[in-house]
Amino acid sequence: MKPIPYGKQNITEEDILAVIESLKSDYLTQGPKIKEFEEAFASYVGSKFAVAVANGTAALHLNALVLGVKPGNKVITTPITFAASANCVRYCGGEVVFADIDPETYLLDINSVKKLLEASPRGTYQGIIPVDFAGRAVDLEAFRKLADEFGLWIIQDSCHSPGGYFIDSKGQKQHCGNGNFADLSIFSFHPVKHIACGEGGMITTNDEVLYKRLLTLRTHGIVKDENLFTNSIQFAGGVESYPSWYMEMQELGFNYRLTDFQAALGLSQLKRAEESIQKRIEIAQKYYESFRDLTFIKGQSGVVEGHAYHLYIIEVENRLELYDNLRKKNIFSQIHYIPTHLMPYYRQYGWKIGDLPFAEAYYESCISLPMYPTLTEMEQDFVINKIKEFYNG
Ligand SMILES: Cc1ncc(COP(=O)(O)O)c(C=O)c1O
After folding, report:
1. Which residues contact residue 244 at a Cβ distance below 8 angstroms, ignoring those fewer than 6 apart?
2. Across-strand partners of 188?
3. What are the pLDDT digits (tens) for 293-342?
4. What SS3 class is residue 224?
5. Which helix (H) or strand (E) holds 391?
6. CA of 89 relative to ligand 1 center, distance in Å
7. Euclidean distance between CA atoms 111 and 109, whole angstroms
8. 3-state secondary structure of 318
9. 57 CA → ligand 1 middle, Å
10. Ligand 1 center to 122 CA (angstroms)
């Protein structure tokens, strides 16, 4: 059996042709494919606006900037996520406050967040960053209600969940990143994600003011709209109007652009997004059915509606032995995640073992099994059998 990773991109001939076509065009960076990708992605998730950026981390950084995170500002997030969800607050000098997870869903526990908010004077916290961890959509309707009560913004980290949704109190599907509840949502197009661009990211929002600022900050804080210029026409070198070369850098931005050929790849991948999720759901269903009667496997909630299944996670005893045993058989499972609050970087701010018991207990037993649309039936059977063999001897 050839190596079976926990996640893998799926690049088709059609994707390759789309990239070649883009490479043969006049644009390498910021050409027409960017706008096309942004519009198609916004329409896929149901938001008004989308801004393509270099990667998910850049998306998070820009979000923290436009929402005004400043030194000393406190922001709440989950410890069971990739570190970037928290790091964006630190990039702006803010303070990350981790709240525990719900042991059933592994998502940021709204009651833990509420307790933190109620225990401090109003204004202590600026925002919340819930994460659709593993592809399971956070109930953002509930978080929005809480955030409004305390005057907070929400950044939804949807890196794991394009195409995912939760069902709101009216029975409606609310797709991750649709902008109905979060101020801003972000996605990543890293190879193991649903849509792969090599590197890449997207921000979605329904807020036009934030959208416009994001566009500027993505490209060095440069403004090209003459209605917004603050220097005089004479200074710019014109007589009655601004010369066409003229532009202004009005705030400190970055080069967080995606390239046109990456956007072409993303667009091509986006066409298969729904098909890929269906495949992921089938894989999840099979794992669930294969393991549901086995007492040594926990953490299986059945196939959850709206789950985008970026990861399929189980909780087991003897996790290290299982992990090593699978590796010897060419099955490369993974652990998501080492709790961020216990990373040495965050320990320096006082975080320690025992602070977030559910997240820490989860970390002791979690393991992510191979999950990607091109995982074959034979490969999945092999994984399932090797796990059963390990426990049953
Ligand atoms: C939950 C989460 N947030 C943020 C990121 C950062 O995305 P990127 O790797 O595109 O910078 C990732 C990527 O692994 C992620 O899984």
Report:
1. none
2. 201
3. 998 898 888 889 999 999 999 999 999 999 999 999 999 999 999 999 99
4. coil
5. helix 377-392
6. 14
7. 5
8. coil
9. 6
10. 31
Take residue 122 and report the two structure tokens written for it.
């109003």
Task: Give the amino acid at 116.
Answer: L
Q: In the structure encoding, which two tokens stand for residue 234, read together?
A: 């004479």
- 0.70 surpassed by pTM: yes
334 in Cβ contact with 4 (< 8 Å): no
The strand ranges marked E within 168-291 are 173-175, 184-188, 201-205, 222-223, 248-249
Distance of alpha carbon 323 from alpha carbon 359, whole angstroms: 20
14-44 pLDDT, tens digit per residue, is: 999 999 999 999 999 999 999 999 999 999 9
Which amino acid belongs to residue 154? I
pLDDT tens-digit map of 126-178: 999 999 999 999 999 999 999 999 999 999 999 999 999 999 999 999 999 99
Cα–Cα distance for residue pair 241/68, rounded to 1 Å:
34
Structure-token pair, residue 185: 């949502």
If DSSP codes are grouped into helix, strand and coil, which group holds residue 106?
A: coil
Kindly state if the Cβ of 158 falls inside 6 Å of ligand 1.
no
Beta bridge partners of 4: 331
What is the length of the chain?
Answer: 393
